[in-house]
Design goal:
The protein folds into 2 domains: about 1-355; about 390-485 and about 495-655, no CATH class. About 75% of the residues lie in helices and about 0% in strands. The protein has 30 helices and no strands. It is globular and about 120 Å long. It starts with a helix and ends with a helix.
């Protein structure tokens, strides 16, 4: 009876989801473009109305299909159980389950399979819309002349123009992800499809801001975060609606919605943070907000807040009553429809913004200085100790990572304490200290001067590989994750299950092996500075972010091998750890001395042409960087050596106490057995001597 009451609402939400978002989004987007003037024809070389209106429409469909694809893959990886047989709380749910595609193994859960079907269809639409956006973008870039010798000009655009090359990469990544959606039903296959799908956001973010314009790092990373947050939020909502009656009748309804709600909350915070960060680059004053572009931003912000309020209502008053109250279920599905209405309008506004000219120019500055040509930013003040703490250039990506990991750690700590379990406060302090260091290294003076000085670059690297990882390792995040979160029993995988799987994979065991970790730790700096790879970290935004990830990971694995607490690493004996530390640091000192004594400028095209006149040459600054590489390493090395010695002492004390307890339990049985053995040996020797006589 209960299902008969709300099933019509469920079916309406499932059937109306796509039409509501598409129609409302296109209408609102069109009105917003007319309001900002983005739909008006250009005075010269106008591509025509088919492109002026077709490109935004194709982008809208592209964004929608991307959201649904990634949302469906997220449900398959992190929310729904893959195999049938156990539902929420371990209850049997084999009804309507289908056998695995190859006829072997446990049957696949019907909802999980339907989520993959949604991903399949959405990925096809995504691929087609990506090709449409590519073609429209080509015509929009070239203008009316694109229709003259269309194919040859398109070939040049795709092979020789960076914008076209990025779109080719996007189409290839989407096609590969779509192929995996159709061809794989394993967790790893679906995970690979999700990685490729999320990877599409990298070129999309890179295209969203000129590399030569001011605030490039902030713009690119905020755009990427915004795309990720919106796709998780909207895509998950679509999947809930499209799963429809099957999910409504399932015993998993409440659990699934609760899990999605957690992701949606995180997505909302990411969307709000990244949206504000990105808007500040395009709107600098209240007067800018009064322009058509600024008013569209205000409207989009209001819609985002409304969506957040609907989500808050879900979490506070509706989700807890799902599966027990028909009224709550009806209210939930009605709110889903409301969310689609607001989301459709929001997406239309977003597309209109992407086609409109902001009041603050995003073009490179006229008559730029050498520093602005290379970095896109004006030259900071002359470096000094105070300026290393007062000069900041915020990186939204790493701020979001540090804040998110801090909140997650605190939540795990609170869960343990509420449960009555203990967790050392010092570990919490260590983790938060590591996150503070991470924010400084990626957004503070180390980053600001790291872009223009070799010595600043070396400070950033030394902090990343030798200072930031130490408190992170002492925080024991994997152990906290295992103790502070509940293991899933319904056949699905959450963050806990995926992290533990990753920690125990053969690949991670190889990279975490103390020998490899030591070689990677010492060798990375030499390879980075002497092989030419450093050039890409300086010139490419993606290269810079990958550099941060690599050095942070190398330092973390090395510290984990020596003083770590978390599982997953087979650590050597304590004397061997001290020997590894000694050898690694000796190699590290040799690296610093080699730079100090070098007379050849590393990446001279960059550091030699930065245009700074601070009283010393680029080669002198490089030699100073070598001294920094040598000097900074001394303090973390001493700290690690002390920690190894302390852990060695504690281990010896624990072993001694264990032996004492064992002797107390057995009444010194081991000692008496040893004495008996010695006595028997003495008696045997005595008998042998007597026989010889």
């Amino acid at each position: 009876m209960k299902s008969q009451v709300f099933e019509p609402i469920v079916r309406f939400a499932a059937r109306a989801a796509v039409p509501i978002v598409v129609i409302l989004g296109l209408v609102v987007g069109l009105l917003a473009m007319l309001f900002t003037g983005a739909a008006e024809a250009t005075l010269l070389n106008d591509p025509g109305p088919s492109v002026r209106f077709g490109l935004p429409a194709a982008k809208f469909v592209f964004n929608l299909a991307m959201s649904v694809t990634i949302g469906a893959l997220m449900f398959a990886l992190l929310i729904l159980p893959r195999t049938a047989g156990r539902g929420t709380g371990g209850r049997k749910t084999t009804k309507n389950a289908r056998p695995a595609a190859n006829g072997a193994g446990p049957a696949l859960d019907p909802l999980w399979e339907k989520a993959l079907k949604i991903a399949e269809v959405a990925s096809i639409v995504w691929t087609i819309s990506a090709v449409a956006v590519l073609v429209f973008t080509f015509v929009d870039t070239v203008g009316a002349q694109a229709y003259l010798d269309f194919s040859s000009q398109l070939g040049v655009f795709l092979t020789q123009i960076a914008f076209g090359q990025l779109w080719i990469l996007i189409v290839v990544l989407i096609a590969m992800a779509s192929t995996l959606c159709f061809g794989s039903r394993s967790y790893l296959g679906v995970a690979a499809a999700a990685v490729l799908s999320v990877g599409v956001m990298i070129p999309l973010a890179l295209m969203g801001h000129s590399a030569e314009a001011s605030g490039h790092t902030q713009a690119v990373n905020s755009i990427g975060l915004h795309l990720l947050g919106v796709t998780i939020w909207l895509g998950g909502l679509f999947v809930i609606a499209l799963l429809g009656p099957g999910l409504a009748r399932s015993t998993q309804l409440r659990t699934v919605i609760q899990r999605y709600s957690t992701f949606a909350l995180v997505a909302f915070v990411v969307v709000a943070f990244s949206g504000v960060e990105n808007s500040l680059l395009r709107v600098h004053s209240f007067a800018d907000l009064m322009t058509p572009y600024g008013q569209i931003i205000v409207a989009k912000a209001i819609a985002t807040i409304l969506l957040g309020l609907v989500g808050f209502w879900h979490r506070q008053f509706v989700i807890s009553r799902l599966s027990t109250a028909a009224s709550a279920t009806r209210e939930f599905w009605r709110l889903i429809v409301v969310e689609f209405v607001i989301f459709g309008a929001t997406m239309g506004l977003a597309v209109a913004l992407s086609r409109s000219q902001p009041p603050v120019s995003q073009a490179p500055v006229g008559d730029p200085t050498p520093a602005e040509i290379l970095t896109g930013e004006p030259l900071p003040p002359a470096p000094s100790l105070s300026h290393y703490f007062t000069e900041w250039s915020l990186d939204p990506l790493w701020i979001a990572v540090a804040v998110g990991l801090s909140v997650a750690y605190i939540a795990g700590y609170v869960n343990l304490r509420r449960r009555g379990d203990s967790w050392p406060v010092m570990r919490l302090i260590c983790w938060l200290l590591g996150m503070i260091f991470l924010v400084y290294v990626t957004s503070g003076g180390a980053r600001v001067y790291g872009e223009i000085q070799f010595s600043g670059h070396m400070i950033q690297h030394m902090l990343l590989i030798m200072v930031v990882p130490l408190p992170m390792v002492l925080g024991a995040p994997i152990t906290l994750l295992m103790r502070g979160t509940k293991a899933r029993t319904d056949g699905s995988r959450g963050i806990r299950e995926w992290v533990l799987w990753l920690v125990h994979t053969p690949y991670m065991r190889f990279f975490a092996n103390p020998i490899f970790a030591s070689v990677n730790f010492a060798g990375s700096l030499v390879i980075f500075y002497y092989s030419g790879i450093m050039k890409y970290a300086l010139e490419w935004h993606l290269g810079h972010e990958l550099m941060i990830i690599h050095f942070l990971g190398a330092g973390y694995l090395f510290a984990q091998a020596l003083i770590g607490i978390d599982p997953g690493v087979k650590r050597p004996a304590y004397p061997m750890r001290l020997l590894m530390l000694l050898i690694t640091m000796a190699f590290h000192a040799f690296f610093g001395i080699s730079i100090m004594s070098s007379e050849v400028l590393i990446e001279g095209d960059w550091f030699g042409n930065i245009g700074a006149d601070w009283g010393y040459s680029a080669i002198e600054d490089q030699q100073l960087g070598g001294g920094i590489a040598w000097g900074i390493g001394e303090f973390p090395t001493l700290f690690i050596a002390i920690m190894v010695a302390m852990q060695w002492s504690k281990s010896s004390d624990r072993e001694a106490k264990r032996i004492d307890r064992s002797e107390a339990r057995t009444d010194d049985a081991e000692l008496r057995a040893y004495n008996d053995m010695l006595s028997k040996m003495a008696d045997r020797d005595s008998e042998m001597n007597q026989r010889r006589r």
